[in-house]
């Protein structure tokens, strides 16, 4: 069986949210699975030296318009949150802990986090919000709370982030398909052609 | 008749070259014309404070791969030039002079400049190269040489660049469709939907 597609993202990235609503279906169409890998986008910004997109003169204003328009173009609900950016470290750690228990539940949790932030504007930097979302999915919130403070899980997120950077990741979403990197929700058509043709 | 699409570009921008091969056909499909407007992208970089894309750690290496892959994806010949970046001021001035004489010839000249640089790697910063390309299109090269040194043409390029920035331009290609800005060759599908639906 072909290797899964690697999908690196940060829960605070709007284009990652949009991609998260589409990548599994696209992959499945070509008999492929997707490895979801949250990481800390801030670490990539330290490597590139680039500022946060929305703070860049002219480009920042455009980007706010493009986030919403792209969401309408793809047909996914979207509302730019009042609190932006925010820390996604607790959510990402919770994901890796869950992933060690139950992959399908971890995927469900990731969707719930993305939607809580990008549709409802909930403050996903707060442990209490993560606990509530987890609780709603039948996840043991006490075990989650303990896990996100554990050295192993902290290390896992760090090593996933370092691993993504070692593979050239500088922004999100970042995909690797059979060794080929693709950056951005707007590269899904190129990913589809790559899957169709085995590379072009 | 509907307003033309505004297409702002710099001859030194690879994604502008790719867009230049596609935008007229896309617009024509919806009964629209396109105003081609070369400008000085460096002036936008001064506004945004962003570095040249190819020099950014990680992102620069990715971009080189993405230029070529995007060209293959769209089906247009492409070879990254040895000399990059380079000054496009002479080519852009020549365009505006020609545009004052003969719009169709100016469009033909713009295609020739883009292709000379992005297919053949010719040094389009050199007046002699611009003269040769103009000559091949039956353009009076002495009149061109005089025109690109004239204060009126210099001022025209400056005012077009300032005008683009005033409309939010921060990168190229940059399109305005009925007041809505779109950045990047990868936004052509959104432009198409905009033209189809009158906005979404």
Structure report:
Two copies of one chain form a homodimer. With 200 residues, the first copy, chain A, is an alpha+beta fold. The first copy, chain A, has a single domain (5-197), classed as Glutaredoxin, CATH 3.40.30.10. Chain A contains ten helices and four strands, in the order βααβαααααααββα. Chain A has helices spanning 14-20, 23-29, 41-48, 59-74, 89-101, 103-118, 127-136, 141-147, 151-166, 188-197, and strands spanning 5-9, 34-38, 174-177, 180-183. The first copy, chain A, has a four-stranded mixed beta sheet, with helices on both faces. In chain A, helix 5 (89-101) packs antiparallel against helix 6, helix 5 crosses helix 9 (151-166) and helix 7 (127-136) packs across helix 8 (141-147). The mean pLDDT of chain A is 97. The A-B interface holds A 44, 47-51, 56-59, 61-62, 65-66, 69-70, 72-73, 165, 168-171, 180-181, 183-184, 186-187, 189-190, 193, 200 and B 44, 47-51, 56-59, 61-62, 65-66, 69-70, 72-73, 165, 168-171, 180-181, 183-184, 186-187, 189-190, 193, 200.
